[in-house]
Amino acid sequence: MNRIDHGLNMDSKVFTALKESFNASLRSTLMRMEKFAATEAKITITLDIDLADSHVPDHSRPQYNAERDVVIPTFQHKVTSSIPVKDEIKGKTGGVGYELIWDRDTKSYYMVATKEVDQISLFDEDQATLPDEPEDTQTTDETAEEADEDEGQEGE
Description:
Oligomer: single chain
Largest sheet: 2 strands, antiparallel
Number of strands: 4
Strand order of the largest sheet: 1-2
Distance between the termini: 134 Å
Radius of gyration: 45 Å
């Protein structure tokens, strides 16, 4: 066994799979960021380390079937990436033209359109006539004919 090849640091061969997973995740994340026009991303590396006690044959003393104690390391990694892609839909209901009403019977609030005194709503019942005009500006067919006759007589 070559102890230099298995030294435990980020440059050792032990973590080659971890580095390859990170590189693949980095490439994939950057491509998705470009695709979705994202400006932020997060890559998380998790390294779980388990150390287990065990026994292995001691080959330095084969005549005695001796064993020696060892610690077996296991390194498990996980590389995750996340790109927060925001999707937003806005809306508004209410404001000017509405009022809040408390109904004592139902014990509930209601939002209703504010109805001004002279305002006619599209949903009001049909009114057969419009509000009366003041008498001095009101004209009928008869008064219009009389006015025409008066104009004709003045010119004579």
